[in-house]
Input
Amino acid sequence: MPAVLLRVNGTTHELDLEPQVSLLDALREHLGLTGTKKGCDQGACGACTVLADGVRVNACLALAVQYEGREITTIEGVASPLQAAFVAHDGFQCGYCTSGQICSAIGMLAEHGDDVPSAVTEHLAAGGVELTDAEIRERMSGNLCRCGAYNGIVAAIKEVAGADAAARVPAEAAR
Amino acid sequence: MRSFAYVRPPDVAAAVRAVAAEPDAKFLGGGTNLVDLMREGIERPGTVVDVTGLPLQQIEELPGGGVRIGALVRNSSLAAHRLIRTRYPMLAQAILSGASAQLRNMATVGGNLLQRTRCLYFYDGAAACNKREPGAGCAARDGFHRGGAILGASGACVATHPSDMCVALAALDAVVEAESVRGVRRIPLAGFHRLPGDTPHIETELAADELITAVELPASPVAAHSRYRKVRDRASYAFALVSVAAALEVRHGAVTGVRLALGGVAAKPWRASKAEQALLGAPATEESFRHAAEIELAPAEGLPGNAFKIELARRTIVATLRQVLTQGGAA
Output
């Protein structure tokens, strides 16, 4: 089997992987990083969301071999005020979608910082779009929560986005 | 997933040689559709040629005001690009209304053009599908066909093309550039996808060994005044029931420029040329918009589960044109 060099959470791993192994299965089955969840395994739920060079992607539709040389970050490698904010705002019930939600939210805030618009952005040519509830919901629509904890998820992200804007003050409410 | 050989060619020439050399080889872009179809056993390539490392990642302004988009530009990068947001807002909106942010971050422009249908029976290996297995029949006709075609369908197939991006590209007179061992050729987007006829398994004009290398948008002043509107079963992260890409230019109350295309209604992004002809020179009124929509949709045919889309398309055309008229484009 060919050796694949995968860099995950700052560590490089040499794995013997067939090319059909997804990034998700490589993380969970080969590296024991089970924080990233398998929901639909077809790109329809977002539970498997991880960051590749800081960009959110669905690990279930990614072949591991395609991500050689990229910096993969999973929930195990995350230390973000979003985690405490999700707890403080009841941003989950069962928790199955949560690691995907948090990785996705990290990617989403970075996209917003890079002036990426969304489908609900009123004026595409204007920069500095405010992260309203509608913007957050649209930008996070790739992450389903079957418990329906969306209100808490939006509140948690909004708090951290606001704190980000006010110079990254950690979510004290969560302590 | 069935096993396959994986190759990562260093340049375009090597990539097209690799696919030409193996009859069951396929190009792999972002994987958001192909990997899914391979997992379902619907696509079964023996060799996968990963093109995502090739230098086709640029968005460049062309002399005269057009834009050249490398085939491996990610959908999210294209939608976020300044030139697209300001000159072709319908294209940015179309891309942003498709899939999810994660998928748009992965998906490439070339791959988006080559998406397969989302018809349930195409995905269900146990169901009859002429597209998957020519001659097998079409389970969708008498089955669940809410997402099915109302224009250009045939007895053999009622599938729709799922792309939002392509609807805007059709309205914008985009041109697809493709390369193979035989050379480079340019295919107008309007003629890139095929209607099903008796051969629904043949979906595009592209040969199996041709690699999409770029998409070019001609300069289009009217495109700056454009919008994309998508109607679907949930507000986000769902395929279109009906979508409309519309650009409109009005002087002294009359339509002096218009681009109109529909999504979710046919096996190809549907350029509404008849409606455009009816609108050019006509007064920019609700009545003209309705008349144009009716002309375009006159040949539409519905099945019991999707006939509502004819009226939905009519109303969405009128509503989108009205919005561009009263609020301007999305830029």
